[in-house]
Amino acid sequence: MIKSIDRKKIVECVRKEVKKANKEIIVTMLLSEEIENPLPRSYHTLLQKKVQQGILVKRLGFGTKEEYNQINFMYKFNSKNYIFKYEADINYYQRLIIIDGKLLFFGVDDMFFQSSYKQLIEAFLSYFSSLFKKGRKI
Length: 138
Fold this sequence. Notes:
- By secondary structure, this protein is of the alpha/beta class.
- The protein contains five helices and seven strands, in the order E-H-E-H-H-E-H-E-E-E-E-H.
- It has a seven-stranded mixed β-sheet with strand order 1-7-6-5-2-3-4, with helices on both faces.
- The radius of gyration is 14 Å and the shape is globular.
- The N and C termini lie far apart (38 Å).
- The mean pLDDT is 95.
């Protein structure tokens, strides 16, 4: 199943599900977008809380080294449970968040979706893993 989510409600829907995370949160971000129009501080506070609870957060940003450094400075997690890398080629960017390998949120153009369809989640996990392995970390 794939469920469409209203753009105005996507952050709240994601936040609600992130609160339930028990093992791992996988996230991509367009670095320039986060710099120009950051997600609410409450979202980052929640991620930090999850990291402190022992939840592994893997974040892959798409953009320049300078943008990566700026985001790294904005959001200091300082934990072995938080791994943040970047990919310079933004052509590979796909907006997504996967929670515990069981729930996927993703965006296409200006539309947002949620799915728990296992094969779809596995496809997005494969995409993420291949780029995350190559990702750079400073």
